Amino acid sequence: SEVGGKAANLGEVYNRAHLPVPLGFAITAYGYQLFLDYNELTELIQKKLKDLDINDTDALMAVSQELQNRIVDADLPADLEASILQAAQDLRAHLPYDFKLSVRSSATSEDSEASFAGQHATVLNVSQANLIEAYKDVVASTFSPRAIYYRRRRGYRDQDVNMSAACIVMVHAKVSGVMYTVDPNDSRHAVIMISAVWGLAADAVDGSAATDFYQVHKKTLALEASAIALKERRLRPDAADGVLEEALPEDLKRAACLTGEEIRLLADYAVRLETHYGYALDIEWAIDPQGKLYILQARPLKRSQRFGAEAVGATDASPEAAAVPQPLILQGGQTACDGAASGYAYVIQSDHTLHHIPEGVVVVARQTSPRYVPLMGRIRAFITDVGSVTGHMASVAREFRIPTLVGTGNGTTLIAHGEEITVDATRRMVYRGRVEHLLTQKMAVNPMKDSPTYNLMKSVLKRIAPLSLTDPQQDNFRPAGCRTLHDIIRFAHEMAMQEMFRISDGVAPDECVAVPLRAYLPMKIFLVDLGNGLRKGFKAPHAELDDVTSIPFQALLRGM
User: Fold this and answer.
1) What is the pTM of this model?
2) Active-site residue, from 18, 217, 356, 392
3) Which residues pair with 334 in a beta bridge?
């Protein structure tokens, strides 16, 4: 609750699972709130986001830009800034060398029921001189368009996400990547899945780089399958700040990133961590030039909710798929999220076209990217040339149940913009036209399930929905017996009905109790005054609107 899932889990991995993590410290959620309050930003943020329609992309971008600019331009309280710089200075006592920091988002709702994968910022290779600016960049990312959209769609209020930051000593990685402790599309598949790249893994997790892939049997730790990608470039820390992209030496382009011994060590760490936590994990890791393996992140793995026959057959083309009469456009890639969908292909050439993507299309792109998250509400499937099952986009696609096929190599070349296609992400095939028998009815997805808003509504509904006052003859049918709002409505309705029929008992036969109301409505309305509903001393044969003193009835008439 103070340092978010990412930082808390690093402490858990080091102190309780006893596996190596880089040194570091966390700037707390309290520090974040202190920063916002100091600059009078809390009320501004609430005002700007209150009535924002997240499906209005232009409005979302404008509000996001304004809030992020205000945060980046703001000053930190002096005591908070001094504490951050002192914490960085204190790390020097534990390190024999000059170091840089990775400043990573660790918001209070990250890595929980919702992954928030790729929605917030990480600033790599930060010197102490630039630490405060990097921290403000991470805080500002709380209000990026994709972060705002994601948390609204997943049922998180803005106040549920308070940005802590994990400031971690940079690992100058020789090789790094991500591993899953289970197949996300079929949890019965007892494997560990590892993706790896040379250098830093930032471009691997965001889906912009080709990765080596290794599949390890969980029980024996034996390598079951591997696919070595052609890797053109790598990221490495710059001598100053930030990172550099450089061309790989020829001997590394087609070389496997990991040795057999490193694969076994990674698999061993994965099994130990899954045993410790008791559930499937999504783990980021890095190996330094001396060969030491570090765990950089461990969070719950977002898996597909469908583990039926389709998922079991995900590794092979089934006879059913082979019998499809429509032409096969593409075969291959990796299943990031299983399922099938049909629609018109929308081939993305650059990010500036994201605003114009229409509803109901299949997006075909060169690479996966967290920037596509605001599209989740209006597209049917994803296909990418580059990317891996272990990337951020794959995690988010599984949360939203969007069939996603990644790493196809040439989807943007083979699929024509605007043609109708069917994506069978489970069997890794794309067909021309609409293949009806593959488009089985999907289970309804509730992306808000188990979110703070969802759980709040569940608890509130217990005070609203149940009805216990069912029989007016029972002893509990009285005000003290009301336990919910439904009970109050039932009780009030019963008492009103009884009073309405009882009031005529004391009226002489020649007296008229019901008074016509003159109102500009296409109906006849008669009033029976149960007491103080009409103005004092009213005796007229007709009532006007001004004669009505009952506030609820005035409201009803205005509404009508």
Assistant:
1) 0.68
2) 392
3) 406
